[in-house]
What we know:
The protein is of the alpha+beta class.
Amino acid sequence: MELDDAESGGMTGEGAPTAPTGPGPAVPDPTAPGPGPAVRETGPAVPGPVDGAVVRVRLDLAYDGSDFAGWARQPGLRTVQGVLEDALTTVLRLPAPARLTVAGRTDAGVHARGQVAHLDVPEDAWAALPGRSDRTPGESLVTRLAGVLGRGAVPRGSGDVVVHRAVEAPPGFDARFAALWRRYAYRIADDVTARDPLRRRDVVWHGRPLDVAAMDVAARLLLGEHDFAAYCKPREGATTIRTLLDLDWRRVPAGEPDAGLVVATVRADAFCHSMVRALVGASLAVGEGRRPSGWPAEVLASGVRQPAVAVAPAHGLTLEEVAYPPPDRLAERAAQARAVRTLP
């Protein structure tokens, strides 16, 4: 989510949560307060997309972002949200379009291996999924979605969106607000011997050798809670305060997945628009020797976007994982995430 990585509310960006968007009949926002249809959970009341009792369903999914115009539904463009919502509406035979809430909205070209979303499904539609089989509703939904999402793909059945799991969510679950953190990886091949044509869609081929040790030193100076305005595209009404939990660079040794690649691991409670790719861009300036290791921290302290900080290419970025608290802490976490943060 770098071209269109906008998020709304208190958190925005690559790994930040977003409300569902897009055209279609008016549907209640699953994250908005107020009365609504009965939801089979004991957490805060959350309006569902249709009249009657609904089941909140968690989806764990992955996608190759190469041929998508990002996550968010946009008129006339192929997006992950649009493709998946259309498939869900078909499989569940819903009277109104399915509406997804996602953990982190990704830009055009950005991939996801561990994306999480939720939707509210009418109880009768959920119960009807197995038909006469002995599968659970979640297993049936995953199987049926695989058929719809893989339709027309080449090779046959190999769609670029895969739902790995569908389960009833515990009370208080919200894919967007209940998340504790999001973890991304950014992959670079800075040596021709590490360039694998089979990985060209998720690895950036960099033409200059990188000083990974210097990049890692620079990255560690950015950890903690800060206002990351210097690394975010501003959005009216949205805070840029984030807690960066991990930002480290390493050259992966032989014998491990991604061997030979330079890989950044980036983990935060949320990300604002373009934050990860801007952090990568600043790191690359250090790795190439164009800037000292302290420069990214100086940029952060300035609080202002600088032309010298290039936003790294989208296709090297992958959302790897989203973490949630134990079930009994979900509602508490969601309430915390809804609050707009300020620095002490």
